[in-house]
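thought: fold this chain, then report.
action: predict
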Amino acid sequence: MAAEWPKLSYAAWSATCDTLHAHSQVLGKLAVELAPPAPQLQHAALSLTARGWETATLPAPDGSGAIVAGLDLRTHEAFVEHSGGRGIRIALTPNRPVAEVTREVLEAVGRLAGEVRIYPTPQEVPWTVPLDEDTEHATYDASQVETYFAAATQAALVLAEFRAPFRGRSTPVNAWWGTFDLAAQFFSGRPADPPSDDFIMRNGGDAEQIEIGWWPGDLKHDGAAFFAFAYPAPDDFAKADLSPDAAHWDSALGEFVLDWDDIRDAADPHGLALEFARSAFIHSCEVCGWDPVLAQSAEGIPPPVN
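observation:
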């Protein structure tokens, strides 16, 4: 039986969402410190797995092997695991402030793999209190987290299926801890001028790309939604009628959007979300002048064999 696509309104779970978002930033900052740098900041990306948000395999600071850190959204624990078989789990419930969880995660890394220091100031969020001092974000409703995880899992499956046949360079379905979204990026192979000197923009925006993703909503857009954009995009990029019919351009966000609530009760929400991804991708390739053969491969059409 197909899994339900649950209702997900940011306003209904904003306190828990922001706390979970802050916890994810601890993981991301560990990746920034420990992972070998990769183009477009890919080394800093996390993954949504069958148990929650996780880092990739990271070198142990003391050279003793490797570690993985994550948020287990089934058992509601943060965890650090060492390749040697040891692990430490940290409860996320009952409500515990981000500062306390942050300190315990870093202490766990130190005990298992050697001391690591992170830059504790959160990024791409409305608050600025360092993670290891943040006592404001302490709300953690397990049932709300489970609803989010169920929705995020369905979204991740859509994105994974869409990116699978693409023959060019693409990313996995990344879980981004700054914007708290899931996204796959596709690259034309040509460079681009970064949109600003900001560190993230300078390093993430130096290649032509199309991004298809999903996020659970925020202060600017209450409901969960799939999104799509291209960089760099021509002036008339927004002038398109995408499918399904509910897809639209959101001028405030600067992205094409398909709202979760417009498809979640449909007979085949997965299929409609795939339809949006393909429609947005084809439009982006056409107006941005990508190689048509490369563009077609995202629809499962392989390039010709010479």
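thought: worth noting. The first strand starts at residue 46 and ends at 48.
final: tokens above.
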